Structures are given as C-alpha cells and as structure tokens.
Amino acid sequence: MGTTSRSHKPNEWAAKVNHTHLIKDPFIKQFLDNCEFPSDAQEIKESDIALIRTLDKDIDNPIKYILAVDGGYTAVEAKKGFPSSQIAFFQFGALLFSIEDLESLSEKPFIFPEDMKKLNELKRLKLVLPLQTISYKNQSSLTDSVRKAIYDFFIDAIEDSSLMETLSWFLFKEYEKEPSEIYTLSHHPSLGIGSGEIQLTRSLMRGDYTFDNPSGQIFLTDVFRLDEVVDEDLGAAGMLGYVTRLIEQLIIVHFIRCIHRLKSDSLNEFLFIADGPLSFSAQTANMRDPMRDLCNFFKKSSNLFLVGLEKSGAFVDHAQAICLPKNKVEILKQGQYLLLSNHYIYKYIKPGDANRMTYGITDYYGGKVIFYSYDGQVIVLSVPVPHKTAVKNPIKEDYYNLDIIMLNIQKLRCDMYDDAIVPIALVNKLVSLANHPSKILLEKFASKGINKDRS
User: Fold this and answer.
1) Rg (Cα) of the chain, in Å, rounded?
2) Which domain holds residue 289?
3) Which of 70, 88, 237, 410 has its CA 20 to 30 A from that of 403?
4) The Cα angle at residue 359 between residues 355 and 360, in degrees rounded to 5
C-alpha cells in the first residue's frame, strides 16, 4: 500500500505491474471460475412474478405535505502532518413543502427564485465526531469521546425540543397510554461486549437522560451500541455510514412526534421520505424493532405514510434490468410494481439460500418494492411492514399505504438525475459535502479550531 510523504521526499506509490501476479495465479483463476451472479432478467420465470400489481391512479390522495430527510458526511485530517488525527463532519437536512406548491410550480412556464424558495425551507443539523487520535471534552478514550459527542448532539435543542426527548419517547413508547418502563442494554459501554446486560429504567433516568451505574455513567444514546465499532488504535471511521442512516431516520421520528404532539389528526396528511431503505445497519440494527412498533402504532391510530427510496445498489440495478425495454426484457410495464419476496430476492438479486435465510430480518422494518411509474421512472422503495417475516410471503395489505405513497412519489419527478425525485434531490444538494472545496476547507477549519494542548 502506498503512503503519503510528510517531507520533501516523494510519495511512495504502489507498483504498476504487480497486477500481473494476480492475473496469472491459478488459484485466483479457479476462484473466479467458481463465482456466479444471480439469475439474469431473461431467466425470470412467470411463477416468480405473480406479485406484480398495477397502481390505481384514481384513488383519493390525502397527502398535503412532503417531508424529506437526507444527510452527508466527510472525514478530514485535523492536524497537518499527522494523518491519523481524523475528525468527521456531518450535515443533515429536513425539507418540508406542500403538494399544492409543487403542483402550482409544474403549471408555470418559468420558475422564479421566489417560487423555488417555497421548496427550499430547509432545517440543517450539524454533528462532529472524533475518528482517531482526538479526544473530546477531556474524555479518557476515543470510545468515550464518541459517546459524549453523540450524546451532546442529541441533547441540543431543535427549537423547543431535542432529539434526546424524541429518543426517550421512541424507546420507551411514550406515545402509548402505558409506556414501557425498561429498556435492556446489551452491556455497559465502558466495560465492553460480554460484560452483562443492564436494565435502563425509565423512572430512574435523570433529567439529563443519563443513568447512574457503579461502572460509570450511561447515556441514553448508548443504546445505539456505537462503542462496539470504535477501535482505540484503528479509529471509528467504520461507523460513519451507520450513524448517518440512524440519525436520518430518527429525525423523521422527531417530526412524527412533534406533529403528533401539536396536531395528531394532521399526521395522515404528511408523507415522510428517507433517503435509502427503511433499515438500521450493523450495531444500530437494534433500533429496528422500536421503529416497527412505532409504525404499527401510528398506522392504526392516525395512519402513517413513510417511504425509503434507494438510488443505487443491486436492487436498483435489477429494477433497471426488468423495467426498461432497451434491455430486451420488460418484466414490468409502466404503472406496475412488484413486491419483492424472499425467494425472488435470493434468486435474482442477492446471493443466498431462501430456504435458510430471510432477507433483512436483522435490520429492515420495511418491505421492498420495484415501481415502474406511469411516466417512466424506475423506483426502488420500501415501506413499513407489520412483522419481520413479511418478506417471506408478501401480501399487498402488509405494505402500509403503498398505492398512495407511489401516487405521490410519481408527482415528485426530477429530471436533474436518473430517476430522482424533487425533495431528495434538493435536500441532497443543500446538505451534501463535496471533496472540493468542502473537504479542503473543513480540514483547514478543523486544524485551526482544535485545541492542540492536552492537559
């Protein structure tokens, strides 16, 4: 592996001929011979697409508002000449606009800046995490620095509330008449995996959302188990994607809570859109069950319209292959959608054995759907389903408000990018952090702002 020079000496680059040793190696050749892709679209059997349905365009549409959430991050070198000192900057955005504003814009021959401002009312949240060789607020380790930084982010007020209040409401099911009293933490974050379960009792939680414990204070945010992915030597860069998806979805939970608290009967007028599938990754996957409980509760009590949209990956690749006639195979026609079953996923999209494995059982709370819209968009979406094995035998009724969601997604077409929709494209533009110039400027900002002296 090459290295970057810290002095006048040249960088150590990797040799440019070493690939020949791999190409000529018989073991490598044999390995590749034994690899295979899932079945091609041309091989799809009619019996495997029995779950194709057609969207009814004439159903009543209760949605009046769209709220989309997206986030981005960049990791930078915080100390010049010390590449292992790294810090990550996150930015999250929640974009709210009305369907009425969007439809009025589509009827205008020209869109003026004051019109666009209606779709540009963005709320931004910022987070900074130490990744390596940096301590925060005199914490004794990198693990504790990360824990404290996450806690501080959640405790900060968002106008008159905070994500920490939302987290408590979410975990202990305070939206129900009889909230839960106990949440079980798998281990003490300071002692590590295997140290034994700890009961977090709601009535014993302090006003600052902490719990007293003989082995050290516990933050409510320790339920995310991010301490498990911090390596004191190698750093915490491996958790960046997990943190991003976690916070994006908890921001949606926050707005669900606020709307429910202020005017609960208007919750069924909102469509909440997450960038990516409805799932929690790796250590944060334990948030899947509380999220499913919340979705099930509000589906019954107020109705809930929530969708996750995927822009890339194996499912998107497969969707393109079965929808577009240029591929000589058009399994789906415009206006149709396909509920993806466990059998279908492992046969045509992902490697795996459908008889022994259940796709997404540890991290998904939504079921996947491929939608070929009436105007030619190819969309992979996921919506909440009531139980974790819904993917094994999908039925339309289990996919919460699927027709209404697809009807509205179709209205949000954006021609800036392939199969993009307006809110996600806008919020991504307004929160994403580019390598140039954002990363360079943030590196300079971090190197000047961090206190160099440790006392």
Assistant:
1) 24
2) 65-449
3) 70
4) 150
Residue 312 is predicted with a pLDDT of: 87
| DSSP-derived secondary structure for 33-71 | HT--PPPPGGG--GGGGTTEEE--TTS-----EEEEEEE
In this structure, are residues 270 and 63 in contact, taking their beta carbons and an 8 Å threshold? yes
Look up residue 210 and give its amino acid. Answer: T
DSSP string, 245-300: HHHHHHHHHHHHHHHHHHHGGGGGGEEEEEES-SB--GGGGGGHHHHHHHHHHHHH
Question: Does pLDDT of 431 surpass 90?
Answer: no
pLDDT digits (tens, 9 = 90+) for 131-162: 888 888 888 899 999 999 999 999 987 767 89
Q: Evaluate the omega torsion of the peptide bond into residue 10 and state whether it is cis, within 30 degrees of 0.
A: no
Q: Distance of CA 164 to CAs 223, 228, 438, Å?
A: 12, 21, 29
Q: Is residue 26 part of a domain?
A: no
Q: What is the dihedral of CA 396, 398, 400, 402, to 10 degrees?
A: -20
Tens digit of each residue's pLDDT (9 = 90 or more) over 243-258: 999 999 999 999 999 9
Does residue 7 form part of some domain?
no
- Kindly report the length of the chain: 455
Which of 135-144, 355-364, 438-447 is predicted least confidently? 438-447
Highest mean pLDDT range out of 61-65, 329-333, 440-444?
61-65
For 428, other C-beta atoms within 10 Å of its C-beta total 19
Predicted confidence (pLDDT) at residue 455 exceeds the cutoff of 60: no
Measured in whole angstroms, how far is the alpha carbon of residue 437 from the centre of its chain? 25
pTM of the model: 0.85
Name the phi and psi angles at 26, rounded to 5: -65, -35
Residue 32, in any domain of the structure: no
Pairwise CA distance, residues 319 & 44, whole Å: 13
Contact 227, 250 (CB under 8 A): no
Write out the two tokens for 244.
Answer: 């991003």
Q: For the CA atoms of 443, 446, 447, 449, what is the dihedral angle to 10 degrees?
A: 150
End-to-end CA distance of the chain: 36
